[in-house]
Amino acid sequence: MGHDTNYQDREFKIIGTRVKRPDGIDKVTGRAKYGADAFAPGQLVGKVLRSPHAHAIIQKIDISKAEKLAGVKAIITSADLPDLTGSNRGMTDILENCMARGRALYHGHAVAAVAAIDEQTAKQALKLIKVTYKLLPHVTDVDEAMLPDAPIIQDFVLQDGKPSNIAGISTFGHGDVDAGFAEADVIVEKSYKTEQTHQGYIEPHACLANVSSDGSGELWVTTQGHFSFRVVCSTLLGLDMAKLKVTSSEIGGGFGGKTHVWTEPLALALSRKANRPVKLVMTRDEVFKASGPTSSTSMDIKIGAKKDGTITAATAMLRYQDGAFPGIWGMLGAMTAYACYDLKNVKTVGHDVLVNRPKVAAYRAPSAPMAAFGVESTMDLVANEIGMSPLDFRIKNAAKEGTQASYGPVYGPIGIGPTLEAVKKHPHMRAKLKKNQGRGMACGFWFNFGGQTCVDLNIGPDGTVSLTIGTIDVGGSRASLSLIVAEELGIPYDQVRTNIGDTASLGHNDTTEGSRGTFSSGMAAIFAARDAVGVLRERAAKMWDIPVDDVVWADGVATATGAKHSNLPPLTLAAIAAKAASTGGPIAGHNEVVADNAGVSFASHICDVEVDPETGSTKIIRYTVIQDAGKAIHPDYVEGQFQGGAAQGIGWALNEEYIYGADGCLQNTGFLDYRIPVCSDLPFIDTQILEIPNPNHPYGVRGVGETSIVPPLAAIGNAVSHAAGVRMTHIPMSAPRILKAIDDAKA
Amino acid sequence: MTGVLVSTTINGDAVQFACPTDETLLDSLRNRVGLTGAKEGCGTGDCGACSVTLDGRLVCACLVLGVEANGREIGTVEGLVEDGKLHPLQEKFIEHAALQCGICTPGFLVAAKTLLEKNPKPSEEQIRYALAGNLCRCTGYDKIVRAVQAAAKEMRKK
Ligand code: FES
Ligand code: FES
Fold first, then answer.
1. Around Cβ A615, how many Cβ atoms within 10 Å?
2. Given the DSSP bridges, would you call strands A206-211 and A44-50 parallel, antiparallel or unpaired?
3. Which terminus of chain A, N or C, has fewer Cβ atoms within 10 Å?
4. How many Cβ atoms from other residues are within 10 Å of residue B13's Cβ?
C-alpha cells in the first residue's frame, strides 16, 4: 500500500516524552544478552592466528603439530575458504580481509584459525601453527603511500595503467575556483593531518556460529546489520541465504565498526569443519589490530573571501587512507567538506589511498570529522584575517534552503543557519574565560541514510501490540519506535513492545548505519500502524455490522460516527482483538519501504578549553552541542547521541591515535595506551535540540546519531589556538604536540 | 592443566565451581557459574566492564583468578536487586537514560554502589574520579553522573 511520506504538522500526545526504555531493566540487572553471552551445547572456542608483520608473503602454513594437540577439533586457513564470490571485487576484498590469501597485508591480518574444546587448548594450538613469512617492504603513512616508489599494496589497483596505491579519486564542486580566488581580498591556505582512530566500542566482536552438516546454519552475533551479515556470510561460505539464520544480540556499541564482518565467516567455517558450534570472541588487542578503524588523513585546504566576509572560492585536496582494501572514505570526505556553506565556487578532491593497515570501516559520520577539521580551522583563520568574528563569518556564508550543496544536491529546509543563530544566543558564549582558557566553535554536516526497511506489527489476543523490526537498537531506538506505534494507535506506551527480529522473521533490512534506525524503522512503523488501524476499523464495523466508513479510529478506540450509531459504545483495541477469531483472524500491520531522504543534519558546537602552557595538556572546561534533530522522538536518547558523539570527538581531538612503529606494527593495542576519554576527563556536555522538520518524514524526523562527532576536532582546535596562541594542524592535539607548538612559537 | 575446586559466596549464595588455576574470575563467573552480567571489554584491567566486588572491595574480575574467590564473598550486578526491588542506582540509570548500548552499565552500577557505600554524598568531581576506571563509549558520561547523583540523593532520604 502506498503511504504519504510527506511531513504533516500535528500535535503529538506522547512523541517527545521521556519514557523508560523497554530493555532498560535487562541492561541494569545483567540479564541482557550480548554477543559473548550466548552458549550452545557442545560449543567450541574459536581463536585466530594473526600476522606479526605489516606486509609479508605467506610461504607456508604448517598445522601438523597443532592438529595433533588433544582437544583441537578444526583448523582452517584460506584453503578452507575457496573464493565463491564470482567477480564481485567488494566481496573478494571482504574474504581476503577475513583471512589472508598468500599475503599478509597488515599487522594483525588473520592467517589461520582454530576451534578447540576450551580457551587454553585453542591458544596452545595457535602457538603450534608454524607460518613461514617472507617480509615485504611496507607503508603505513598516507602521503608516503602516494609516492611513486611506494610498496604496492594491491596489484589490481591501477592509475594511468600503472600499479598504484591510489584506489580512487573523487571530485566534487561547481563554479570556477580560479576566478573565485582572483576575486578574493584574503586567501588562506593550510595543510592538516589527522591520525587514525578506532570506534572504541566497549564490547569486542563476538559470535556463536552453528553450521550443520546439511548446510543450514545459525549465527548469533553482535552486529549493526544481521541481514547484511547474512548476505556476506552466506556468499563467502556458499550457503543458501534462507538456510542461514542470523540473530543480532544486544549490541555493546558499534558506531560503524559493527557494520562489517571480521571473524564471523571464520567462525562459520570452523563450525562447519568441526561440525560443532563455535564461539569466537575477539580480544581487545584483536579489535584494535584487525577490526576497521577510521582513516588517517592529510589535506590541503584553501579558502578565499572578500573583506565583507563573502567566501569567493574554496578548495580541499583530501588524502584518506583506506587500509589495505579500497574504500569510499576519501570520497565521503570530499562530499562533506564544504556542505555547511553556500559557495559560488568550490572544488574538492578526495583520494582513497591503500596502506598496510587494517581495512578502514565507518566511524560515525565517516570521513566528515577530518575534512571539517581542515575546513573549520581554515574558516577561523580567514575570519581572523578579515577581522570578522568566526561566528558572524559562518552565519554570512551558511547554506540555506535552495543552496546548491558542494556535493551536488539543492538543499530543502536545513538547520545550519538556525544552529548558528542559537550559538549566538547561547549563554555559553557569554561565560567568562580565565587565564590560559580559550573558546572555539565549529560546524558539522552529515547526510543521513534511509534504505530498505520492513517491520511487522502484531496485535495480540489481549490487545497488546508487538512491533518486530529489523534494524538494531544501538541506544534506545526500541523506546522511540514503541512511542511511535503508541502515538499512531492512540494507546499507552506500555501497551506496545518492540522486538528485533532475526533474519528468518522479516524481509531484508539494510544495516543500521547512517543514523537510520529511528528514521527508517520509524517511518515503516507509522505505516504499519496505519495499516493496522485500517484492519481494526474493518473488524469493528463487522462487530457492529455497519459500513466501515462509519467507523473512525481515535484515541485508541473505534467509534461509530453519526446519530444512528449513537447507541454503540466505542470498542477498545482489546475488545476488537478478543473477537479477532470470529471477525477474520489475527490483526496485523506490515510495511516494506525504501526510506529515502533521511534529511541532512547540521550541528554547531561551542567549546572552552584550558591549556597548561607548561605541559601542553588540555582540559575541556565547557562544551555545548546544538543540532537539528528534525523531530526528537525521545529527547533523552537524542541528547545521548549528541553527548556521545561530542565525547568521541573530544577523545579524537586530544588523545586518541593509532601509533605505528618503523616496522609497520601497531604499538598501542589496548585501552591503556589507546586512551579514550574517562569520566574525570569531561565536564557535563550541554545540549540544545532544534527541530526543523524533515519534509520527507511524516513526523519530520531526521537521523541524529552521527553529526555530533563532526565539529569537535575543529571546535577544540579553534579553542586551543585561542587559549595557547598556537594554531594546531595535526590531530590529535596531544600534550607533546601542543607543547612543541608553543615552544616553536616562542623560538 | 590443573583444576581446582573453589568454594565461594556469590551474591549471598554458596557456590562451588572447578576451574584451571590460570583462569580469571571473570571467565569463571561467566563460563562456569553462568553469571554473564560482568562483561569483558579488555581483559587487561583498563575498562571496568568486569567490575565486581571481592569481600566488598571493587575489583576488575579480569585481573583476579577464579581460585582467589575461594572462601571469599563476590558481589556482581546480578546481586543488586534486593527482595525483587531494583537498587536506586538501577532505577536512576533507567530513568536518566544513563545507558545507551548498556555494555558498560553492569560495571558502572557495581562501581557506583561501592562509591555510595563509602561516600553517601559525593561531589560531582568525586563521582567522576570514582568512576574513572569504567569506560563508556556511548554516553559521554553526562547522564551517568547525573543518575549517580540522583541515586545518592534518593538513598540519603531513606
Ligand atoms: S575486562 Fe576487566 S577491566 Fe576490562
Ligand atoms: S552505554 Fe555503551 S559503553 Fe556505556
1. 12
2. unpaired
3. C
4. 10
- Tell me if A72 sits within 8 A of A121, measured CB to CB: yes
Break chain B into its structural domains and give their ranges: 3-78, 88-157
Could you report the per-residue pLDDT of A128-157, keeping only the tens digit for each? 999 999 999 999 999 999 999 999 999 999
What ipTM, to 2 d.p.?
A: 0.98
How many of the other CB atoms lie within 10 Å of CB of A179? 12
Query: What CA–CA distances, in Å, run from A138 to A165, A296, A298?
Result: 12, 16, 19
Contact (CB, 8 A) for A546 and A610: no
Distances (CA, A) of A486 to A287, A629, B119: 39, 21, 42
| CATH 3.30.365.10 segments of chain A | 24-32+450-595, 297-448+599-746
- For chain A, the farthest-separated pair of C-alpha atoms sits apart, in whole angstroms, at 93
Q: What is the mean pLDDT of residues A193-216?
A: 97
pLDDT in tens, A644-666: 999 999 999 999 999 999 999 99
Residue A514 has pLDDT above 70, yes or no: no
- Cβ distance of B101 and A24 shorter than 8 Å: no
Test mutation, A202, A500, A623, A687, chain B, max B CBs within 10 A: A202
pLDDT, averaged across chain A? 96
Name every protein residue with a CB atom under 6 angstroms from any ligand 2 atom: A 202, 253; B 99-104, 136-139
Closest Cβ–Cβ partner in B44, B97, B109 for A670: B44
The CATH architecture annotation of domain A35-136+204-251+258-290 reads Alpha-Beta Complex (3.90)
> What CATH architecture does domain B88-157 belong to?
Orthogonal Bundle (1.10)
Q: B42 C-alpha vs ligand 1 centroid, how far in Å? A: 5
- Closest CB to A20: pick one of B94, B136, B143: B94
Pairing of strands A110-116, A72-76: antiparallel
Please give the CATH number for the structural domain made up of A24-32+450-595: 3.30.365.10
Mean of the pLDDT values across residues A93-106?
98
| Residue range B3-78 in CATH 3.10.20.30 | yes
**What percent of chain A has a predicted confidence (pLDDT) above 90?**
92
A649 part of contact set with chain B, CB < 8 Å: no
